[in-house]
Amino acid sequence: MEGAQFWFPNAVGAGSATAARALYLLHLSRAEVTVAHHWQEQTTSPTADLAVVVSSGCVRCR
Q1: What is the DSSP annotation of 3-56?
Q2: In contact, 13 and 49? CB cutoff 8 Å
Q3: pLDDT tens-digit profile of 19-52?
Q4: Residues 6+ positions from 8 with CB-CB distance below 8 Å
Q5: Residues with Cβ < 8 Å from 22, sequence gap 6 or more?
Q6: Are 47 and 15 in contact (CB under 8 A)?
Q7: Nearest of 57, 62, 40, 53 to residue 14 by alpha carbon
Q8: What separation in angstroms does the CA of 11 have from each of 27, 30, 53, 57, 61?
Q9: b/e per residue, 27-60, with b = 16+ CB within 10 A?
Q10: pTM here?
C-alpha cells in the first residue's frame, strides 16, 4: 500500500484516471470519505488517461 500512496498521485498528475480510481477506492476502504471524493473528482478530468492515448500511438501505424 505504501507504493500505491507514493506512485499513484504522480500518475494522477500525469493524467491517469485509473490511478485516481485506485486512490479513490483505497481511501474509501479506509473510510476517508473526503479524501476519496477528491480522487474521484480527478477521474473526470478532461486530460484523464491522455498519456495512455498519446503513448499508444496511431492504430494504423502499428
Answers
A1: HHHHHHHHHHHTT-HHHHHHHHHHHHHTT-HHHHHHHHHHTT-TTTTHHHHHHH
A2: no
A3: 888 889 888 999 999 988 888 888 775 555 444 4
A4: 16, 19, 20, 22, 23, 26
A5: 4, 8
A6: yes
A7: 53
A8: 16, 21, 14, 19, 26
A9: beeeeeeeebeebbebbeeeebbeeeeeeeeeee
A10: 0.64
Find out whether 39 and 16 touch, Cβ atoms under 8 Å: no
Q: What is the pLDDT of residue 29?
A: 92
Residue appearing with cell numbers 473526503: 34
